[in-house]
Amino acid sequence: MTFRVSAVQYHLHTISSFEEFAAQCEHYIKTAEEYGAEFILFPEFLTTQLMSIGDAEGRALSIEDLPQFTERYREMFSGFAKKYQVHIIGGTHVLRRNEKLYNVAHLFYPDGRIAEQAKLHITPAEVEGWNMGAGEGLEVFETDKGTIAMLTCYDIEFPEIVRMAKAKGADVIFCPSCTDDRHGFHRVRYTSHARAIENQIYVVLTGTVGSLPTVDLMRANFGQAAIITPNDIPFPPKGLLAEGEINDDMIITADLDLELLYRVRERGSVTTWRDRRTDLYTDWT
């Protein structure tokens, strides 16, 4: 099974309407469609751009205001997924549930279905600055191209949760991210490579670029998309099928061959999934 994925280095800048946001998203989707992409990944917190629209007094909206856009966000990406017949991981959007805010990744299927995965590990800045809550459970998602998981940014830094996703059958982790400096970016990037090696899976990663000068915690972004593989002979030596130019507004695209994963798990130079010492530590299966 081979399928094509694109990852969007989404450029954040001040906008004046939801329609402007929708037009920018569709631009990226049209571009990915021209390359034949079947899955399109947007980054974490891309909908914070909507906060820059501001209120009647010209002040930027707060994180508490963001859930008011939920219905329009879902309708927009669901409509695009159906229109262009692609799977869209619509980055993350902030939802309110039981008076608590959650950072939730969304998968939009070509047939109109919508799946959700709340971020499971919350950074100190998200807790202190935005009072974000943590999701309570991990799901994997069946598609006609295989089983995937959505783990957001900080999630990928925890080996246990990716082990669980692989044990549940995920061959591809889509990781929407948002980091404001080189330190945060490299934490996510390096651990994405580690997770691909440990679990013999693909990781599709992307982040925000640009800035939102009026929006708290979004004034700086440092991002680069990457399509990451295990490090073994069937794959590129650096474990990279594609990567973007740092902090540029762009899309990257590559083909994921699941048969190569199955082959290296059985007879690769190393067989890290099979060789786990589950007599010494937890077997997530």
UniProtKB/TrEMBL annotation:
Highest taxon in the source lineage: Bacteria
**What SUPFAM superfamilies has UniProt attached to this entry?**
Carbon-nitrogen hydrolase
Q: Where is the CN hydrolase domain?
A: 3-258
Query: Which parts of the chain are coiled coil?
Result: none
Do you know which InterPro entries this protein is assigned to?
C-N_Hydrolase, C-N_Hydrolase_sf, UPF0012_CS
- Quote any Pfam family the record assigns: CN_hydrolase
Q: Which family does it belong to?
A: Belongs to the carbon-nitrogen hydrolase superfamily. NIT1/NIT2 family.
**Protein name as catalogued:** CN hydrolase domain-containing protein
